[in-house]
Amino acid sequence: MDLREYMSVRRAYNIVRQSVEPAERLTFEEFAILCRLDFAGTPMKTSAIAEYQGALRPTMTHRTNHLASLGLIERAEGENDRRNVVCSISDAGRERAAELAELTRTQIPSGRSLSRTSADRIRKYVDAMGSFFCKAGDLVLLGLLSAEGEALSIMKLVDQLGLLQPTVSMSVSSLVEEGLVTRFQDASSARTSSVSLTEKGEAAARELSERIESIIVRRKLRGSRKAADQD
């Protein structure tokens, strides 16, 4: 996966998420869990899902509890060890994953990476991307890296990332404190500030980008039933 593909999907889903009622919203990681369970075809232990996402057990318990409360997955105690909770996707969860994938697809503008892909392919990308946790601040770094040296205003970052303005502003403030980005006033307007990566920030952004490039997206070989079953 390349950075442009990753940013296309994340931006599109961020926009989709904002359009959903707060009580029904799923984090990107929760959406990814639905996709992983759907492709798995069999129940998965919570510990296996946590390993897939590189998350601590309490974090995964919170995510799966939320999905279960919405009726999107079913949780059950393991047959041999009650501490081993297993999760499976429900029919409602399968429908929600398909719906979110289609909505995400429609939010990718023409000309951007994956703008012509299918909703099923989007689900495969989300499944793969779920193995890499990327917080808002990381997305800001990646957005600036994508700009290839161009300084971006807060509003341009908002448009590029699909995040809310307060989220971007708070992330930028934190990154400034960490020395990863620098913020300065635009010469044309005292009210507008632009943001660019520092040398330290560029190094951090490139490290994130390298991790993204190591993500492998599921592929299906045409004409092979066995490959389809394994995909």
Straight-line distance between termini: 17 Å
CATH first level of the largest domain: which class?
Mainly Alpha
Which structural class is indicated by helix and strand composition?
Answer: alpha+beta
Read across the widest sheet, the strand sequence of neighbours is 1-3-2
Q: According to CATH, what is the topology of the largest domain?
A: Arc Repressor Mutant, subunit A
Portion in helices: 55-70%
Biggest pleated-sheet summary = 3 strands, antiparallel
Helix run count: 11
* Known CATH architecture of the largest domain: Orthogonal Bundle
- Tell me the domain tally: 2
How much of the sequence is in beta strands? 5-15%
Radius of gyration: 19 Å
Residue stretches low in confidence (pLDDT < 50, at least 5 long) are: 221-231
CATH superfamily of the largest domain: Winged helix-like DNA-binding domain superfamily/Winged helix DNA-binding domain
Q: What coarse outline follows from CA principal-axis ratios?
A: elongated
Total number of strands: 6
Query: Would you list the SSEs in sequence order as H and E?
Result: HHEHHEEHHHEHHEEHH
Mean pLDDT: 90
